Amino acid sequence: MIRIDQMAELLTIAAGADTRFPGLSSMQDPRLAAWVQILGETRYEDAEAAVLRIVRRPQLQVLQPGHVIAEVKVLREERVKAAGDHALTPPDGLPPGRWPEWLRSAKHAIGDGCTPEQAMDLADHQISAAYPNAKLERRELPASRRPLVIEEHQPRGMSSGREQIGRTA
Asked: Quick one: where's region Disordered (predicted)?
């Protein structure tokens, strides 16, 4: 949840970027509490990224809490899409029927900005906490899923600026 002082920072950014958005009169400005209540459980980092994305675009409307909420949703979806489901491998020993719960947890962590590896660890931890009898284990990725490193061939003395390209098979 966003704190009042963090919300003041975000509204100050909005006021600085758009002269139509009235600046805060004080830390007791009633808009601060209203915006905090409306944004609810939105993470500050997501709200900040959303506000910065919004104020960088031409706007016909003055910034409202709903704009921030919608942009946070888009931002989180972009993170999950960029990671892709292929990056998430469930652990061995996952209790029957818990794949959707595990995947939701991992995707939520990616939306929060975690790497796929961090997201899988968090999802594993949440499942282990909810189902203490589950014996979750991670195994080595098969060779077909490991990142490959391909050397680029350049004539002597020339460099492309990229000596290695990483890709996944």
From this structure: 135-169
- The answer to whether 94 touches 102, Cβ cutoff 8 Å, is yes
Question: What is the 3 state secondary structure string of 90-120?
Answer: CCECCCCCCHHHHHHHHHHHHHCCCCHHHHH
Averaged in consecutive runs of 10 residues, what is the pLDDT profile of the chain (169 residues)? 94 91 91 94 96 90 94 96 89 90 95 94 92 83 50 44 43
pTM of the prediction? 0.73
Please count the helices (runs of H) and the strands (runs of E) in the chain.
Answer: 6, 2
Q: Cβ neighbours of residue 98 under 8 Å, at least 6 residues apart?
A: 127, 131, 134
| Other beta carbons within 10 Å of 44 | 15
